[in-house]
Amino acid sequence: MDKLINDFSYGLFFWQAIILVILIILLAKFAWKPIIASLSAREEGISNALMAAENAKKDLANLKADNEKLLVEARAERDAMLKEAREMKDTMIAEAKNEAVEQGNKMIAQAKAAIENEKNAAMSELKNQVSSLSLEIAEKILRDELSNKDAQTKLVEKMLGDAKLN
């Protein structure tokens, strides 16, 4: 340290001070403005990037909320469609059952009508057969009774007697 103090030269100090001032002036005139401008541009770029990141984060949050809302709406719409489909299915089944019951009732009514028609036709045919059979029997009985003359006379007298009574 003693050597530094002993070797100190005012002339050298003066020129070094002048060179330092010139260097500071030159740096201030030519280098500091571009350095400060690049620093402020970098600072502005960083702040813009931070704001863009924050905006992107907000947009992402909004998109996520919108997606959740869309999911809720889609689920609600799906549930409504399923409910409507179930109701439609139940309605179709009920209509099919009602139609089947109606068709069954119609078929039963037609069968009853057919049975009744067949019964009436059978009864009519039976009556016709009974009446023709009765006529044949009566004819045979009358032939047998009217075959002899005494029986004919008795029958005529009996009928005359019955006719007077009525």
Automatic annotation (TrEMBL):
CDD domains the UniProt entry points to: ATP-synt_Fo_b
Primary site of residence: membrane
Membrane topology summary: Single-pass membrane protein
Coiled coil: 46-143
The entry's keywords: ATP synthesis, Cell membrane, CF(0), Coiled coil, Hydrogen ion transport, Ion transport, Membrane, Transmembrane, Transmembrane helix, Transport
TM helices/strands, residue ranges: 12-32
InterPro entries assigned: ATP_synth_B-like_membr_sf, ATP_synth_b/b'su_bac/chlpt, ATP_synth_F0_bsu_bac, ATP_synthase_B_chain
Pfam families: ATP-synt_B (PF00430)
Subcellular localization, as worded in the UniProt entry: Cell membrane; Endomembrane system
Its biological purpose: Component of the F(0) channel, it forms part of the peripheral stalk, linking F(1) to F(0). The b'-subunit is a diverged and duplicated form of b found in plants and photosynthetic bacteria.
Family: Belongs to the ATPase B chain family.
Subunit structure and binding partners: F-type ATPases have 2 components, F(1) - the catalytic core - and F(0) - the membrane proton channel. F(1) has five subunits: alpha(3), beta(3), gamma(1), delta(1), epsilon(1). F(0) has three main subunits: a(1), b(2) and c(10-14). The alpha and beta chains form an alternating ring which encloses part of the gamma chain. F(1) is attached to F(0) by a central stalk formed by the gamma and epsilon chains, while a peripheral stalk is formed by the delta and b chains. F-type ATPases have 2 components, F(1) - the catalytic core - and F(0) - the membrane proton channel. F(1) has five subunits: alpha(3), beta(3), gamma(1), delta(1), epsilon(1). F(0) has four main subunits: a(1), b(2) and c(10-14). The alpha and beta chains form an alternating ring which encloses part of the gamma chain. F(1) is attached to F(0) by a central stalk formed by the gamma and epsilon chains, while a peripheral stalk is formed by the delta and b chains.
Listed name of the protein: ATP synthase subunit b
Organism: Flavobacterium sediminilitoris
Taxonomic classification: Bacteria, Pseudomonadati, Bacteroidota, Flavobacteriia, Flavobacteriales
